[in-house]
């Protein structure tokens, strides 16, 4: 079939297998062009099919020569409908890993469930014995607690009072006001249940109890802080409350991994175009302005550059891991540089629909968004007929 992008709101309902494969190849090529990493050798990535999770898997495999197991919830092609981008990404990764002689196995299912946890533990026992790194990069709008059967949904809302700011319709290029109603106590609690650290802790507890965590194991979950202009909807909103819980959980995990000399960190990453960030009001406009400033300063990074730097310069540099006062690893340091934030703030104060194209990198935002789904990739013929049915190993 000939596959073209079909955008609905902040998602694209189609994905291109060839474009996704080329994106994965580009990320692999980047890692291979960098110095090798004396890092982990057996890695479990929870949320391994897109964004930071995929980049982490690529970095571990092609930067450190690691065997990897990836867990995700993606959709295969069926009934004339394309597979999800994460499905195609994983197929391309597995092909590349196999060609490089690297072990790579994937499990597709609800990572919040007890069944997928059992399947993963059984696979580790039978194939790898133990893992020395666990990446937690799950992003989902809802979670069913396997202990109670109750399903929780997260919300993107401020806390304490209603909030009004500016945002952008990235498709139309229109800057407008957006108002968000403050979250209820229940909505806050539900968001923490979905996006906080509870499931991360359960994974590590069960992996440890099963004896599949190696001595000196490292586990990392991902977070974001961002600038003052996004704090009300992000860091001081419901998502931020969940991220606070995630950071608290890191210290708890560190405690029960002590007998293994294990390490648990939250890595604070840069603002990037991901399927998750595209859904957050205010943030896409900030990203478009940030990209303009960081590209002009030669500081811009994508997911793969961020994850390579986290592995090579932070976690596995051979030196003590540098953290901030809350024990977080910071790879958002370039984004949060004072000169960068000052320039973004100036642009924020004057951006509108008329000057959006001139003072922001809205085109770069759109390009990155389409690339999430395999579109707009150089060298790919999007008028060609392609096979949408792609198998995982």
Keywords:
393 residues; alpha/beta; seven-stranded parallel sheet; two-stranded antiparallel ribbon; 13 strands; 41% helix; globular
What does this molecule look like?
With 393 residues, the chain is an alpha/beta fold. The protein has helices spanning 17-33, 51-64, 85-99, 114-128, 185-195, 198-209, 228-231, 238-256, 283-296, 303-315, 338-350, 356-359, 362-371, and strands at residues 7-8, 11-12, 42-46, 67-72, 104-108, 131-136, 142-144, 151-153, 163-169, 174-180, 213-223, 263-268, 329-330. Strands 5-4-3-6-11-12-13 form a seven-stranded parallel sheet, sandwiched between helices.
The low-pLDDT segments are: none
Assembly state here?
Answer: single chain
Question: End-to-end span in angstroms?
Answer: 23 Å
Our estimate of the beta-strand percent is 15-25%
N-to-C SSE string, H for helix and E for strand: EEHEHEHEHEEEEEHHEHHEHHEHHH
By DSSP (H or I, 4+ residues per run), the number of helices equals: 13
Structure summary, number of beta strands: 13
Helix content: 40-55%
Strand order of the largest sheet: 5-4-3-6-11-12-13
| Main sheet specs | 7 strands, parallel
Q: What's the pLDDT, averaged over the residues?
A: 95
The gyration radius over C-alpha positions equals 20 Å
**Rough outline:** globular
Structural class: alpha/beta
């Amino acid at each position: 079939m000939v596959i073209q992008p079909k955008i609905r709101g902040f998602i694209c309902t189609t994905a291109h297998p060839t474009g996704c494969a080329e994106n994965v190849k580009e990320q692999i090529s980047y890692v291979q062009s960098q110095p090798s990493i004396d890092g982990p050798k057996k890695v479990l990535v929870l949320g391994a099919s897109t964004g930071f999770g995929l980049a982490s898997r690529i970095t571990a495999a092609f930067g450190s020569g690691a065997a990897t197991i990836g867990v995700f919830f993606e959709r295969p092609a069926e009934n004339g409908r394309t597979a999800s981008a994460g499905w195609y990404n994983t197929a391309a990764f597995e092909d590349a890993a196999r060609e490089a002689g690297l072990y790579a196995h994937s499990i597709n299912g609800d990572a919040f469930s007890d069944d997928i946890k059992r399947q993963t533990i059984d696979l580790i026992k039978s194939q790898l014995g133990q893992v020395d790194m666990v990446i937690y990069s799950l992003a989902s709008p809802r979670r069913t607690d396997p202990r109670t059967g109750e399903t929780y949904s997260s919300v993107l809302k401020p806390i304490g009072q209603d909030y009004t700011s500016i945002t952008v319709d990235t498709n139309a290029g229109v800057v407008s006001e957006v108002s968000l109603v403050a979250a209820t106590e229940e909505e806050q609690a539900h968001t923490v249940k979905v996006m906080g650290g509870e499931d991360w802790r359960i994974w590590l507890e069960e992996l440890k109890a099963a004896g599949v965590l190696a001595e000196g194991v490292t586990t990392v979950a991902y977070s974001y802080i961002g600038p003052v202009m996004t704090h009300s909807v992000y860091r001081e909103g419901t998502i931020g409350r969940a991220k606070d819980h995630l950071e608290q959980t890191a210290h708890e995990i560190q405690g029960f991994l002590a007998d293994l000399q294990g390490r648990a960190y939250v890595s604070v990453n840069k603002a990037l175009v991901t399927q998750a960030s595209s859904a957050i009001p205010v943030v896409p406009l900030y990203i478009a302005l940030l990209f303009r400033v960081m590209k002009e300063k030669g500081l811009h990074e994508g997911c793969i550059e961020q994850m390579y730097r986290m592995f090579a310069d932070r976690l596995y540099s051979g030196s003590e891991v540098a953290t901030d006062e809350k024990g977080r690893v910071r790879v958002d340091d370039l984004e949060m540089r004072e000169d960068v934030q000052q320039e973004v703030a100036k642009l924020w104060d004057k951006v509108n629909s008329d000057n959006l194209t001139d003072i922001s990198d809205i085109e770069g935002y759109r390009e990155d968004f389409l690339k999430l789904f395999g579109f707009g990739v150089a060298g790919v013929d999007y008028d060609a007929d392609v096979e949408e049915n792609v198998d995982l190993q």
